[in-house]
Automatic annotation (TrEMBL):
Cofactor (UniProt): Mg(2+)
Matching SMART domains: MR_MLE
Keyword Metal-binding part of the UniProt annotation: yes
Domain of life: Bacteria
Organism (species): Agrobacterium vitis (Rhizobium vitis)
Protein name (Swiss-Prot/TrEMBL): Mandelate racemase/muconate lactonizing enzyme family protein
Domain Mandelate racemase/muconate lactonizing enzyme C-terminal: 157-249
One Pfam family cited in the UniProt record for this chain: MR_MLE_N
GO biological process: amino acid catabolic process; carbohydrate catabolic process
Length: 371
């Protein structure tokens, strides 16, 4: 069970405020492939909740290419159920909001918005208790996990080679591609050598038949997992067939709620919950538990640089030692908060109260998006 605090000790939530921000980044590529237009901006909707005693919690709602809609969803759909309320049991509150809002879309932007507020409420709860979130949730010690360099799609073997070489020089010992061409995948393997685990994220580019036809490439390149090989991403039957053919699959970044994730946990070797999409800390913890019960290793989807990233690191003690943490291999123009970055390919959770996130006010102001 997720913990709750005695209701007599909890002040009301006095306010909820959103901070839509957009931070440019560079990645060494063209920024095209799977997005409506060039991807060179990190969009995020930060959520700040404050209680009557002045305690503050921060969260992040997924907002890539949908910032305006997500911001509106937080303020119009979620905030009315938070401000002025005493939230005693965050998990129970989360479920109650899902019940109230299912008419407006069970998943997608509705769940992006709920995720951001849920993270903020858990951050607030841990800060009230004076504990890191992982400790509030019952973990006894800090841990370290291996991080992998999550390269963007470059589309050419030469660019992939340069970025793989850069990742190795920075100490990474796990690399993920977002490539679909066999020659590009082969080039990456030749650069990384035989001992560095390699993953391939297709972003739903192939059919099941096309995935089967690439089995020899995956075997030749010793691919640890193939991520989201087919469209639609919730074709779990196809994933089971692909797994049965000897291809380990990673999936889950587009799924929401632990209920939806049960089908993923049953279907693939590597479930991949996304903190800012799945339903926040509440649903993320349930997914981790489901993975553990099924003997599966969760591989968090976390190409973020705000509270979603911090919250994912906060829950590392709830993951298995084999868990790998995604680190988006780009260079942001600014960080919304001083964030832990991989050192020799290793990440650790933080020891400060809450999720460890405290934003830089100047960054919030400079990169604010006016809606």
């Amino acid at each position: 069970m997720l913990p709750s605090l005695p209701p007599t000790s909890l002040p009301k939530i006095a306010s909820l405020k959103t901070y839509p921000i957009r931070i440019p980044f560079v990645d060494g590529g063209a920024g095209t492939g799977g997005t409506p237009s060039r991807w060179h901006m990190l969009d995020m909707v930060l959520v700040k909740v404050e209680d009557e005693d002045g305690n503050v919690g921060w969260g992040e709602a997924f907002a890539y290419f949908c910032l305006e809609a997500v911001d509106a969803a937080v303020n119009k759909m979620i905030a009315p159920f938070v401000v002025g309320q005493v939230v005693e049991d965050i998990a129970d509150w989360n479920l109650s909001i899902q019940r109230k809002l299912h008419l407006f879309g069970r998943y997608g932007i509705t769940m992006f918005a709920l995720s951001g507020v849920d993270i903020a409420l858990w951050d607030l709860a841990a800060k009230r208790a004076g504990k890191p979130l992982w400790m509030l949730l019952g973990a006894e010690a800090s841990v370290e996990r291996s991080a992998y360099a999550s390269l963007v799609r470059y589309g050419t073997a030469d660019l992939v080679q340069a970025q793989c070489e850069r990742a190795l020089a920075m100490g990474y010992r796990h690399v993920k591609l977002h490539e679909v061409a066999p020659d590009v995948i082969r080039r990456a393997r030749s650069v990384l050598g035989p001992d560095v685990p390699l993953m391939v994220d297709a972003n739903c580019a192939w059919t099941a038949t096309e995935t089967f036809e690439l089995r020899s490439v995956f075997k030749e390149c010793n691919v640890l997992w193939v991520e989201e090989p087919v469209f639609p991403p919730d074709d779990y039957a196809a994933m089971r067939v692909i797994e049965a053919a000897g291809i380990a699959v990673g999936a889950g970044e587009n799924a929401s709620t632990a209920f939806d994730f049960k089908r993923i946990v049953d279907a693939v070797t590597y479930p991949q919950p996304s903190m800012t999409k799945v339903g926040g800390v509440t649903e993320y913890v349930k997914v981790l538990r489901s993975c553990k019960d099924a003997g599966k290793t969760a591989m968090p989807h976390t190409p973020y640089f705000g509270p979603g990233y911090f919250a994912t690191l906060s829950l590392l003690p709830q993951t298995e030692p084999e868990t790998l943490v995604e680190y988006l291999f780009v260079d942001p123009e600014a960080w919304v908060a001083p964030a832990p970055q991989p050192t020799a390919g290793i990440l650790a959770n933080l020891s400060s109260p809450g999720i460890g996130f405290e934003p830089d006010p100047e960054v919030l102001q400079k990169y604010a998006v006016t809606l």
